[in-house]
Write a structure and sequence with these properties.
The protein is mainly alpha-helical and about 180 residues long. It is about 75% helix and about 0% strand. It is built from 9 helices and 2 strands. Strands 1-2 form a two-stranded antiparallel ribbon. The radius of gyration is 17 Å and the shape is globular. The two termini are about 30 Å apart.
């Protein structure tokens, strides 16, 4: 985990969460625990993606898979995702129960949607004739994570329903464009 911490620098997700909170009038500092949750989960998903893609090298370095093998990479990825869930539970956020429930539901939905995208993408491997609409749908689902960052930031900032939905839509489209 120390090695992951020194090599995995994620400011993008925590920043989007904080900026979305601030955009609806909330305090960006209120999103610190949510930002940690997204950074941990993203690292875990990244390790699982390296396993699926068999990536032993990435970004000019050796991956956890390349350095420690399949079993360790899988376990560390699982641990990071579990720690992300625990970050919600151990959070210092002083939010009403309804907001915490919405945050947990959104985070759960994000996990399911990312897994669906990975399953769909796996079905496209070695198929050069994959329909463009199918792959667009995969990318759209894979960017549930960026939508969740903006949605949860707006929830923490006490945004109204319209603000939350607008920021969620912005996050999904931003992620989709980035992934393209």
């Amino acid at each position: 985990l120390k090695e992951i911490n020194s090599n995995w620098k994620d400011v993008y997700r925590p920043a989007l969460t904080a900026l979305s909170c601030e955009a609806v009038g909330g305090s960006p500092e209120a999103t610190d625990d949510a930002g940690l949750m997204f950074a941990l989960a993203s690292a875990g998903f990244g390790l699982h993606d390296d396993i699926i893609d068999r990536s032993k090298r990435k970004h000019f370095g050796t991956t956890v898979l390349g350095r420690y093998g399949l079993r360790s990479a899988l376990l560390v990825g699982d641990l990071l995702i579990v720690k992300a869930w625990a970050a919600i539970h151990n959070s210092n956020m002083s939010l009403p129960v309804e907001q915490i429930k919405a945050l947990v539901e959104e985070y759960g939905r994000l996990n399911v949607e990312i897994c669906e995208a990975e399953f769909m993408e796996n079905g496209c491997r070695k198929r050069l004739q994959t329909d463009l609409k199918v792959y667009e749908n995969i990318l759209w689902k894979a960017m549930a994570e960026i939508e969740a960052c903006t949605r949860i930031g707006a929830i923490i900032g006490n945004g109204d329903v319209n603000e939350i939905e607008a920021l969620a839509e912005f996050g999904r489209r931003l992620g989709f464009g980035y992934r393209l």
